[in-house]
Fold this protein.
Amino acid sequence: MDHSFPVDLPVLGWGSRSAARRALLLHGVGSAASTWWQVASGLAAHGWRVEAPDLRGHGVAPATLRYRLSDYVSDLTALGRGWDLLVGHSLGGAVAVLLAHEHPNTARRLLLVDPALYIPPEHHEFVVIAQTARFDTPDDPAATVEADPRWHPEDIVRRERAHASATRYVVERTFRDNPHWDLRDEVAGLAIPVLVLGADPHLSPAFPPELGAMLTARNPMLRYEAVAGATHSMQRDDPDRVLAEALALGAEAAGGPDGRG
């Protein structure tokens, strides 16, 4: 049976629908659209229209039997093109790259937050185990606060709710259905400006410096910056940095001198 059909995604929105600048934000695996609340609120406060969908099987989006990256992309095409900025975290970064590659008019700029663009084949099974291990242990808010006191209390609540709505099946199938997880050629071929914000190299980034060096050499329109002290959850660790970079990219797309305030 062919399971390659799109689903309708629920979408959260911030800011006026008539705003001059528009951003689309894509969350990571096992997460949800609401976890973008700080970055989305900041963009909206600067006059942007921001939309963030729950990806298939996440949040309150419909569940399916298949979770190929191409399936995630097919769902997003209904949200239209011409976004000034496309932002993707982790899985959302991989989906954003594939979306921009397959549909070149989707966005004018791309901001990738510690994106999962390449999983070496020999590491694939380890990633599956690591990503599904959390279903064996309930979230511990106190441990989260202790591990990273920079998190806003609302981030802890939003993460707990996102995790509660995710299932082991969806997370595992996302990796099992993509055994050859490699977006290096796609991101190297993008013809729009791309900024990759990688987690601190000492904090197990999904996008390590060596991958950044390789891809910046292949694509002169790509920039890579490692954010000191930031974990994979950079939009929670350092939302101000993510917001500042998003605003700066938006200003570039609009030809303005400064999008930061």
Notes: The first strand starts at residue 11 and ends at 14.
